[in-house]
User: Fold this.
Amino acid sequence: MTTELEVGLYIFMLAGFLGYHIITRVPPLLHTPLMSATNAIAGISLVGSLVVAGADYGPVSTVLGFIAVTCSSTNVVGGFLITDRMLSMFKKSEEQTGQQRRVPFGRVLVTLVILGASVITFLYWSATRGEGTEWIVHPTLHAETLKYSYILSAALFILGLKGLSSPKYARKGMHAAAFGMLMAVVGTLFHPEIVTYKWIIVGFIIGSIVGGTMGLRIPMMAVPQRTALSHSLGALAACLVGISEYLRHDGVLSTVVMTPLGFEVVVGGLTFTGSLMAAAKLQELLPGHPITYKGQNVLNLTLLAAIVGNLIYLVIGPAVPMLFYIMVGLAFVFGFLLVIPIGAADMPVVIALLNSYGGLADASMGFVLMNKIQIITGSLDGTSGFLLSLLMCKAMNRSAFNVLFGAFGKVDTEGSEQAAEAKGTVRSISPEEVSVLLDSVRSVVIVPGYGMAVAQAQHGVAELAKLLMKQGINVKYAIHPVAGRMPGHMNVLLAEANVPYDQLYTMEQINPYFPEADIALVVGANDVTNPAAKNNKNSPLYGMPILEVDRAKSIIVLKRSLRPGFSGVDNDLYYDPKCMMLFGDAKDSLNKLFAALKS
Ligand code: NAP
Assistant:
């Protein structure tokens, strides 16, 4: 006879395969929205949290449930809002109005949140009158309500992710997914074990305010750290629900339940602290460089061995609550230690990996509670995070092992400046001279990079491109898959500046075109243009696919100095006789260039 566990495992595996097929079809253009979309869907940990917060499992469980509801609703509301904000920016040339668009603040999503809140308030009112939910839904229908609402939401989540395979349908898809979340939440509110809605309401309100503010207000530049913060909240929710389950049963659990529960709290715990560290590094609250010390790997491995040993003992041995809590504590410490030796610029890969860990923690919660929707979404989230981290590693020509343990990104500025002096002459150019050059060209390829994001120069870039196009110049944007600090980071920033996505070209599309380009205008990009990646076998970048700007007829680079980028590798491009450096902050330089062109 097929057991529930077997069914769960089949579902997990099939959802993983389905996720793989859907996610590999998402174009690089939409990789950043994909990250926040899976993050929002992973907020499905809300359904487990609602039950813990509303059931009569004891005061400690209620507090844990309340925190978990707050964290998960922050994720859900914030995740869907920011995804919608991003997707609403992606437009084709013919869809442009010519005016600066106001970003619509996800009216559909706000409506869904209000709908959810109304149902909770109504049920609360009903419960305080001592009537429960029986008069709305017959008790025998409770289980059916849950089952069918979960089936419907699973289908809507999959459709939502499928929508991301084209910018045309992406937004509609995400609305469907948000509706799926509403279905799952409303279905869970009728869970027979929920006896009070008080803490659910408070948690939901706090989470919606925090998540809503983050989703609506956070600048596009800060999307990577918001995503990391959101992962940490989702993982904490999973961890707390696991602790509550352990507590509720005094640790007396079958092997089949204890195994996923242990996995849930360990992965949830380490993802929580790891993601917090990643967010702090990206926000520059902590030093961005890798922090390394002697015996680091030995300490980490010992800690991991202690966690695994504890888990095995708890699964096969008798219940020892003290060991369980030590294991959870060690998992928190492990997440922290795992991320400190990784440089800030590698954080996107770490975030994507932690995204997949968060998905696994969610799926484990699904196995503990035997909740199929959590198994499905956990599996989808896990697959998406894992695939994105592999894609980033491939685009950087580095292994995941190197990213996690290579302490890459220790920039030796002094050394590189000395190396620069030894390499030869660098030609600099003024904005006025660039404007004279631009007067006589027919085609320009703009290459944006991390410096454009730092300088917030995307609007300046878009204005300049428009002016050039008005003058009859053919302008194309060349987007490297790992330019910036998130996959698809440049696409989102340029969409924010009203650049139609049909003017954005992937590396494969644009590289053959470079020899025809009169000017390659590099705005704050560095590593992704370094010819050493093609020509110099000794370079750490060797093998990384790059934008071949060195094949353009002439090259103009906008950056502040000759300092290297994230990799710490000096860029040979700057010594190319065809290359001219327009030194200064990219936004200032573009303003000056724009003024010179106008005059
Ligand atoms: P980059 O190599 O990090 O270079 C960015 C350049 O921007 C710097 O050299 C800096 O030079 C310049 N800059 C900074 N602030 C500026 C400002 N205000 N105005 C003008 N220029 C400014 O960036 P990239 O070419 O975009 O390459 C991305 C790097 O990140 C790659 O090495 C990639 O492997 C790595 N990475 C990306 C991802 C991802 O998903 N996108 C993930 C992991 C790692 P100055 O200081 O001289 O101005």
User: Anything to note?
Assistant: Strands lie at 427-428, 443-448, 474-479, 504-506, 519-523, 554-559, 579-583.
